[in-house]
Each structure stands twice: as structure tokens, then as C-alpha cells.
Amino acid sequence: MMKIGIIGGTGYTGGELARLLCRHPDVEIVSMTSRQNAGKRVSDVHNYLRGYTDLCFTEKVSGDEDLVFVATPHGVAMKEVPGLLESGIKCIDLSGDYRMHDVPTYEKWYGHTHTDTENLKDAVYGLPELFRKDIKGADLVANPGCYATATILACAPVMKTGCVNGDVFVDAKSGTSGAGMVPSARTHHATCGESIIPYGVGTHRHTPEIEMAVEMHSGSKPDVLFVPNLLPIVRGILSSCYFTLKDGASADDVLSSLEDTYAGERFVHAVEEPSIRAVVGSNHAQVGIKVIGNKVVAFGVLDNLVKGASGQAVQCMNLMLGLDEAAGIDFPGLGV
């Protein structure tokens, strides 16, 4: 059994990692850290894990792990990862610290200095359906953002056809769990419970990440206008991505792009009508596409805590450790 640690086990992504890994056939969680909950039973903090783990939170990982997930706010992972890698422990960072290789871009969008540029240049972007070969055997993987995953899955194949212009408008909607455990005025139920709220327009940190990953796959960098919206549901993301066909471009090439790209994939499916309810609770994502005249709309749908975070991280872990890619995450969405 491979030994696994989780740094930052109190939050939604840390708890979701534990939920998925506690039933994984090939790994054992040997440590979960939490400064504020050190000494407490994990199952007392995450009571849905009662009967599934006897672990107590600690302040540090044991150091005996084969792989450690870092599920912390940005700025923390770059302090934790170097020591882990030096100890021979593979790492998956679920924050934004290692997603963008361009240091000035990171510092512009995240607002502070990157202190581990040496490892940053070697980090692999962890979206398996597009970058599987790079993830296999990697020592450090940067787990993609939730909005970014839904959007990239929809946009990258369309851009790769060369049939659309580079200007992309993304209208994305996410459930409230995407904002994390700490409540805010915006996520207060009285504010968002019966409303849809746009936020971070032109400033959301997933914007440069989307542009980077789409360019990595397609060879062409899009100019993304990203408009995120808070939706009054707990889990789920819908990204609607709008393009314009180039003059003389074939609509048929665009229409087949998603199905061709994801044919045979276990977790990404091209469907006629993508549905959040179809994927909630699972590592599955759905994509779809429509062409109306010279306009193209591509859709990406997923559970922001699973395929948009912890489930995708487990998928990457499986690849990094030479395990079955679907192990521990091979179950369907709730449907209703």
C-alpha cells in the first residue's frame, strides 16, 4: 500500500481527498495536518468519515509518505513543497502556486512573490485528459483550478481545430462550495440563496491559467474574457464558452472536436446536453458543443470539489504512482 499524506485536511478539498482515499484499494492515508485541529480525530471534524478512518490531525506530515497532497491556500504550498521533494516525496499542489510557469504572471495575478521558482519550472499541469504523458512519473503536479478545468476541457479541443478566432467569452457559474469553508458576505445564504452573483470579472485568477493550458494543448493562445458567477447550489460548475468561426472554416470540424478528443476517456464525456446533476459527487465531466451560424458555444460541466479539485488530484496521483488511473474514483454521479 502506498502511504499518503494530506496537508490542510480541514477544508473542503482536504476532506474530499480523505473521503475518496479512505476507500482507495491501493493507498493508505497515514497523515492529515491541521494546525487548529491538531490532536482531534479527523472523523470528529469531518463526521461523514466516521467508521472510515481512525486518524487524528497532526501539525506536520510524518515524512514516511510516498506522496503528499497540499490542500492549502496559495502562498503556503511553495513553503511546504521544497522540503517534501528533497525528502523524495512526490507532491500534488491543489492551490495555484505551481500552475503557471511564468513567474511575473503568477506574481501579477496572485499578488505576492513566488519563493520556489526552481521547482515551479518543473511542475506538471495536472489535467490528465490533455497532459497524461507528462503527469506519469512526475514528482510535482499542479492540480488545475475548478473553473479552469471545466473551461479548458471545453475550449482546448475547439481552439486546436484552428477554425475559431482567438477571442473567447466564458460565462461560468459555480456552486458556493467553490468559495471554500470560510464564510463571507457574498456567500451568506441571505445574500446568495435566491440570486446569481457575478464577481471577479476581469480579475479572477483562473483567467491566465485557462489561457496557458489552452495554448499548451492547441498551440494557439486565446484571449479570454472570463466572467464567473456564484450559483445558489452547493456543488457544480457550468462553463459556457463562446467563439466565432473564422471565415471559410468548417462547422463540422468544430462539432466533432470534443467527441474526437475525449473518445475512450473514462471521465470526460461529450453529450448533447451537459448536466451538473449528472456529474455531482463524481470525477466525471461532461462537455458539449453547438454551432449557430458563425457562432460556437462549447460547454464544460463538473463537480468543483471532485473533478474540479480532489478527484482530479487522485486521478493524477494514480498516474504518478503507476496505479490504475480510475482507482478510488470510478463511480457515477448522483443523477438527481
How is the topology of this model organized?
Elements: E1 2-7, H1 12-21, E2 27-33, H2 42-45, E3 67-70, H3 77-86, E4 90-93, H4 103-110, H5 117-120, E5 124-125, H6 128-135, E6 140-142, H7 146-160, E7 167-174, H8 189-192, E8 197-198, H9 206-218, E9 223-230, E10 237-244, H10 251-255, H11 257-262, E11 268-270, H12 276-279, E12 285-292, E13 295-302, H13 306-320
Parallel strand pairs: 1-2, 1-3, 3-4, 4-6, 5-6, 7-9, 11-12
Antiparallel strand pairs: 7-10, 8-9, 10-13, 12-13
Helix pairs in contact: 1-13, 7-9
Based on helices, strands and strand pairing, what is the structural class? alpha/beta
Which strand-content bin applies to the residues? 15-25%
Major beta sheet summary: 7 strands, mixed
The strand count comes to 13
Q: Report the mean per-residue pLDDT as an integer.
A: 96
- Could you spell the SSE succession in H and E letters? EHEHEHEHHEHEHEHEHEEHHEHEEH
- Give unreliable regions as ranges: none
Shape: globular
* Radius of gyration over all CA atoms, rounded: 19 Å
Amino-to-carboxy terminus distance: 35 Å
Helix tally?
A: 13
Q: Main sheet: which strands, in order across?
A: 8-9-7-10-13-12-11
Q: Please bin the fraction of helical residues.
A: 25-40%
Could you explain how this protein is built, in words?
- Helix 7 packs parallel to helix 9.
- The longest helix is centred in the middle third of the chain and has 15 residues.
- The chain is 32% helix and 21% strand.
- It contains 13 helices and 13 strands.
- The model has no long low-confidence stretch (mean pLDDT 96).
- By secondary structure, the protein is of the alpha/beta class.
